[in-house]
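Entry 14. Structure prediction run on the chain below.
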Amino acid sequence: MRKIILYGSPLWKTCPPVKEVLSQSNVQYLYVDICESIGRLKSFLRVRDTSEAHREAREKHQAGIPCLAVDDQVILVKNAEHMRELIEECQLAAENA
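Output returned:
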């Protein structure tokens, strides 16, 4: 089974819809609310600060969420529609259904 982690926050407007798409698509994933604790924020920052996908977000001093980590690949998710595309492209539902 693939390791799928969604980093986000309910306070960020694009995160709840992305999380909903994953749940409705029957993708098994771990959700990390980066605002829940300092430890969770630090775990996300370790990913963000080393990810090429987040280079532009770092340069613009943006949070970089929602962020999907699939195995060793890190993807900055734009919105719910982008998440639907990623589910198909990465075959997330098929391997986790």
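The helical segments are 15-24, 38-48, 55-59, 80-89, 92-96.
Filed with the rest of this week's runs.
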